[in-house]
Amino acid sequence: MAARLGLPLAPVLPVRLCPLRDPLYALLMGYKESPVAEARGRFAPLVRDLLRSFLVAHGPCVAAAAGGLIDHVLAVPSTARPDGPPLATLEGLAAAVSVALPSACWAPGLLRRSRSPEPPATFGHMRPDARAFEVAPAGGRAGTVTLRGTRALLLDDTYVSGARAQSAAAALRLAGVAAVAIVPAGRVLRPERSAAHDAFLQAHRAPPGPGADPLQRCARCVQVAAPTE
Ligand SMILES: [Zn+2]
To answer: What pLDDT, on the 0 to 100 scale, is given for residue 229?
Structure first.
C-alpha cells in the first residue's frame, strides 16, 4: 500500500482491536448504520466516549507518533455518504477533542472526496489512492499555506484495509501536512479468515480478567515500553 501511495504509511493507533464477531463491531456499525434511530442514538455516545477516553489517556502518544503536537483533527472523509462521515457530526466529539488535545483545532471539513477532474476510477476499499481526497478550499481556510508543516490526526470508526484512511493521510501529506496519525475506534480483524489476524490478536489482546484495562496501553505505549520490559 505504501508503494501505491508513494508515501510511507501513517502510524495507526487503534483504540481497540475489533474482531468481526466482537460486540464492539456491532456498536461501531450500529451508531451509523442501524435502521433504528433509538439504537443509533444509544450507540453514538459510546463511540464518542471510546475516542475521548483514548485521546485523554494517549494524547501524548498520538503526538509522539506524529512527531509533535497535533494541529488539526478531522474524521476520515466518507467515499459514499453525501453528508460526510458520521464521525464528523458525532455529538460532543469536537468538544472531547479540544479537551484531550488542547493544541489541536477541530477541522471536520478539511478534506473532501475529490471532485476534479474525476474521482479516480480505481479507488475502492482495497485500492489506496491519495487523489481520492483533496483539501477543501474552505476547510483549509487559507489553503495549503496554513497546512504546510502542521500535523494532523485522522479519526475513524473502523479501520479495515486502511485504504481509505491511508489515502486521506496521503492527501493531507501532499497538501503540505508534515505528519499524520490515524486513530480508529476499532481495528477490524478477521481471525477466522486470516492466520495473520489471528496471530496478531493473540499477541496483542489484553489479558482477560479483573483489572485488565484495554485503554492502559496503546500501540505507541507498547512500542515504547516493550524494550524495557
Ligand atoms: Zn499510549
So the answer is: 32
